[in-house]
Design goal:
about 220 residues, alpha/beta, Rossmann fold, about 25% helix, globular, disordered C terminus, nucleotide-binding, ATP-binding, 5-formyltetrahydrofolate cyclo-ligase
């Protein structure tokens, strides 16, 4: 049976391409503040994070903050021939990156150090095209992140970064190999999965889901 991921991907890519420059800038600024707040609150020491393509959430300010604060940063490099992905450590946004001309994104130079153990990361910040209330994620359709997470048995937090316009009220027809997110951070809020039959673990600090502007300063 055909799922709805292809249709949703096409629709939400069109929406993303129609966003105004003003909204994209506004969303990036607010989301960046929330992510940096999250990193500070949970004292993250080592993160995996992508470098955004056009109209994706721009992560460069987040990465620069981490580099300035001695937080290790690992970004993905895709192997086009094998459809595999490896995370490499960068220490400088100017000298450690090269442009992938096929996808028009920045990637780490091939000689940068590989991430040896995936679960050394405290968290993995992931791009997406669209997400739903259960935190199913639709990406660009190549499956790089889903494969990497499964093949490396990654079990730390997986957090999507998205504009609020990327949320769908439809439930995504997820396949068995699709990986759900733990949270999604947008410029408006932090989304947690809707689980009507389960209660949140009382040991988790979830007070930040109701952030006000004073807390972010």
């Amino acid at each position: 049976m055909k799922n709805n991921k292809t249709q949703l991907r096409e629709s939400y890519l069109q929406i993303r391409n129609m966003l105004s420059d003003e909204f994209v800038q506004f969303a990036n600024q607010n989301l960046t503040r929330k992510v940096i707040w999250f990193i500070n609150k949970y004292q993250l020491k080592k993160i995996g994070i992508y470098l955004g393509a056009q109209n994706e959430v721009d992560t460069k300010e987040i990465i620069q903050f981490c580099l300035l604060n001695k937080i290790e940063v690992y970004v993905p490099k895709s192997e086009l021939d094998s459809n595999q992905m490896q995370f490499k450590r960068i220490k400088n946004l100017t000298t450690d990156l090269v442009k992938n001309e096929k996808w028009d994104i920045l990637e780490p130079l091939a000689n940068k150090p590989d991430l040896v153990d995936s679960n050394d990361l405290d968290v993995l910040f992931m791009p997406l095209v669209v997400f739903d209330k259960e935190l199913n994620r639709v990406g660009m359709g190549k499956g790089y992140y889903d494969r990497w997470i499964k093949e490396h048995d990654f079990h730390k937090y997986k957090i999507g970064l998205a504009q609020s316009s990327q949320f769908t009220n439809k439930i995504i027809d997820a396949d068995v190999h699709d990986v759900k997110l733990n949270f999604v951070i947008s410029e408006k809020q932090i989304h947690i999965p809707l689980q009507e039959t389960e209660e949140l673990d009382e040991t988790l600090d979830v007070t930040y889901w109701r952030l006000n502007e004073d807390e972010l300063d």
